[in-house]
Design goal:
Order of helices and strands: HHEHEHEHHHHHHHEEHHHH
Strand order of the largest sheet: 1-5-4-2-3
Number of helices: 15
Number of domains: 1
Structural class: alpha+beta
Shape: elongated
Oligomer: single chain
Length: 340
């Protein structure tokens, strides 16, 4: 069977597709990355609203003789340290934190920007592929469908003047056979970018959060009782997104000429929202990495072996004659031609 005849079988199969069939040239992983970026952008907007239009921090300044607004603004922009529950419940220990027991946090005010940047990173693989693909496959399908409206026979007649667009397309594909590897490899690279972007973000967040983020989900799964939820050592969220912190403020000179140092407990209502967002991010990213690795490995296998390509084409075609034609087509073409 000639390449010309194989092309005829190929376009005959395309002709039988329904008009309302949706043309999609992106994988499910790329679409999920796009959805993830939209969710991250939305979370960034909500977090910003809570910070600038809500009450992100509230401090108990009854004992420090400092204006509450001044103290809260200072604590919000300065690094504060998390107060373990034992120091909160015992008034004798409130000012006895050793330096080793303090866990300083100064990133929670940057959460809206972090979420926005993560949204950009998640959108990059999808946008890269859309730019690389540039509507090529959709253009091919539109050519087939436009000629189909003027040609109603069960098989394409390559000599029929109504099918001139399809004939030109078939000849173009035949002449350019073997020149589509770069196009296909860009798709494989986009799959790799998905996994790399997600993994990079996980490690970056773990670094930012003091090495407490990578194991966040697994530690949360081991929490079983209410006491575990309140345990500073068992619940990682108490360290990563504390709801209660201690802040130091150096005020005016005292009678001895030395600065007076004030300390107060502050609550962070905004972290109630932030912790839920990042718990979702942890589990969602793990799922996406798993699915992305499967897609990427399958893409690599189809590049290296022709058997999976034959299997995919056979699965998509019911006709035995078309199945034989596709077997020959795979044998005569490389990965780029098959992908296109």
């Amino acid at each position: 069977m000639s390449v010309y005849a194989i092309s005829r079988e190929f376009f005959s199969f395309l002709k039988k597709k329904q008009d309302d069939e949706r043309i999609s040239v992106t994988s499910s992983v790329l679409n999920l990355m796009k959805i993830t970026s939209m969710l991250l952008f939305a979370s960034s907007v909500l977090s910003t609203a809570k910070q600038f239009f809500g009450d992100p921090i509230h401090c108990d300044t009854k004992e420090v003789h400092v204006d509450a607004g001044l103290f809260e603004h200072y604590c919000w922009i300065q690094a504060s340290f998390v107060a373990p529950q034992k120091f909160v419940n015992n008034t004798k220990l409130r000012f006895q934190h050793s330096e080793e027991e303090r866990v300083y946090q100064n990133y929670y005010q940057w959460i809206p920007f972090i979420l926005f940047f993560q949204g950009v990173l998640c959108y990059i693989p999808y946008n890269y592929w859309k730019i690389s693909e540039n509507g090529k496959v959709a253009g091919f399908i539109k050519i087939v469908r436009s000629d189909r409206e003027n040609h109603t026979s069960s098989e394409f007649d390559f000599g029929n003047p109504d099918a001139t667009n399809i004939v030109a397309l078939a000849k173009s594909l035949i002449l350019k056979r073997g020149s589509h590897c770069g196009y296909a490899l860009k798709y494989v690279f986009a799959q790799f970018l998905c996994v790399a972007s997600l993994a990079l973000q996980l490690y970056a967040m773990d670094w930012m959060m003091g090495g407490n983020f990578l194991t966040l989900g697994t530690k949360l799964l081991y929490i079983q009782t209410d006491d575990d939820i309140k345990d500073f050592d068992k619940n990682p969220l108490l360290k990563i997104f504390p709801r209660l912190i201690r802040c130091w403020f150096e005020g005016k000179m005292g009678m001895s000429g030395t600065p007076e140092r004030y300390a107060a407990l502050c609550i962070l209502p905004v972290n109630v929202f932030n912790e839920k967002v990042f718990v979702f991010i942890w589990f969602w990213f793990i799922i996406l990495i798993f699915v992305g690795l499967i897609h990427f490995c399958w893409s690599v296998i189809t590049v290296a072996c022709s058997l999976p390509r034959v299997f995919i084409l056979r699965f998509s075609v019911n006709s035995s004659s078309a199945s034989f034609a596709y077997d020959r087509l795979v044998q005569m073409s490389d990965f780029g031609d098959w992908f296109l």
